[in-house]
Amino acid sequence: MKNICVLGVTGSIGLQTVDVVMNHSDEYHIVAMSAGKNITVLKDILTKISPKHVCVISEEDCRHLQEEYPHIHFCYGEQGLIKIATLETVDLVLNAIVGFAGLLPTIRAIENKKTIALANKETLVVAGHIIMPLIKEYGVDMLPVDSEHSAIFQSLNGENKKTVSKILLTASGGSFRDLTRDQLKDVTVEQALKHPNWSMGAKITIDSATLFNKGLEVIEAKWLFDVDYDQIEVFIHPESIVHSMVEYNDTSVIAQLGTPDMRLPIQYALSYPNRLPLMNSERLSLAKVGTLHFSSPDMERFHALELAYQAGRTGGSMPCVLNGANEVANSLFLNGKISFLQIEELVESAMKAHHVVGNPSLEELIEIDAWARQHVMKQLGEE
Ligand code: NAD
Ligand code: MG
């Protein structure tokens, strides 16, 4: 029996994790979970699962919930997240929080020797240079939940890492894959939120439309698989069937395929190195799919992807600036405050204004993240 702590249980990944765990309740037990502000969804989860510990964002929610569920230990805020991610009873922390907020609990969980199943890619984008050495130091496993990285991880199984020549990262292209830059000027939030292949949280759906998501994934892949940026190539693959590939020095390419279902990479991160049946899932029928398409992204059209490569290659604190500025710009677009193309303009502006710090500490990253967010707000004339 594996005891699991799910951070961000009320989100898209969190809810699918609950589903996977409930389908294999003889293997996994959720002993702790965190939710944000969506208390209605949290209460619904509590009708199906009884964790010992629950963390929420606000103290007030914490107090009310404690009265209503006296048998559960409630906590709140960042300290609460750290508390549940480091509980002695927890074996594995599945981090499905969105954004920079996932960083500190990941670090503390590693320091407490928890296996990490990582959906929260922002953690690696911002602090890969801190996280990867820490993983080695504490001898813990970090298992990717992101579908592309899970595919790469699976394609690397049993291989000699030194023989890898390239990571071939696939991208659906998001909601606006077929639009020209000119057509992107007037797209709406509603249109951006309609992803053709995946149903996900709002932030990552917008990131998929801008292609910042793929950019973040390039940086995530660099850290997870210890390759150079020149070794990571992105392909637009509209069908989202080939979840990513690895090319070896003998020209062999190994891929992982499947119907788009996030429960598979979630479950694999829990069951690794084992495999378990995936309940109620659709099997891939290549005959039904018929044709698969691949093309190289036009970096001018998908400028966000170019910015992410630039930030990654610059290194140091630059990916933190890219991420922080993007988090704010993404949320401003979602709230109807800026246009779609302004997202990348604001990120680029923050990157241009930033003086890079090499090898930034956690404290420096927290300051730089705050600076990037403020920079974006200042550009809009808001403090
Ligand atoms: P989501 O918005 O649906 O859920 C996010 C969860 O985090 C919620 O439970 C929310 O309450 C919680 N949360 C948000 N801000 C918080 C904060 N400041 N403190 C504590 N908790 C907070 O997001 P999602 O789509 O499930 O994505 C989660 C992470 O997984 C992201 O990093 C995303 O990039 C990654 N990811 C998601 C998918 C997907 O299919 N949804 C696929 C690959 C990777
Ligand atoms: Mg992905």
Describe the structure.
The protein is an alpha/beta fold and 383 residues long. The chain folds into 3 domains: 2-144, NAD(P)-binding Rossmann-like Domain (Rossmann fold, 3-Layer(aba) Sandwich), CATH 3.40.50; 149-313, no CATH class; 315-383, RNA polymerase sigma factor, region 2, helix turn helix motif (Rna Polymerase Sigma Factor, Chain: A). The chain has helices at 12-23, 39-46, 59-68, 77-85, 103-111, 121-138, 147-155, 181-184, 189-192, 202-210, 212-225, 263-271, 286-289, 303-314, 318-334, 340-353, 362-379; strands at residues 2-7, 28-34, 53-56, 73-76, 92-95, 115-118, 142-144, 164-171, 232-236, 242-248, 253-257. The chain has a 7-stranded parallel β-sheet, sandwiched between helices. A 4-stranded mixed β-sheet has the order 9-8-10-11, with helices on one face. Helix 3 links the parallel strand 3 and strand 4 (73-76). It is globular and about 55 Å long. The model has no long low-confidence stretch (mean pLDDT 97). Nicotinamide-adenine-dinucleotide (NAD) is lined by residues 8-14, 34-36, 38, 57, 96-98, 101, 119-122, 146, 198, 200-201, 203-204, 262. Residues 8-14, 34-36, 38, 57, 96-98, 101, 119-122, 146, 198, 200-201, 203-204, 262 line the site of nicotinamide-adenine-dinucleotide.
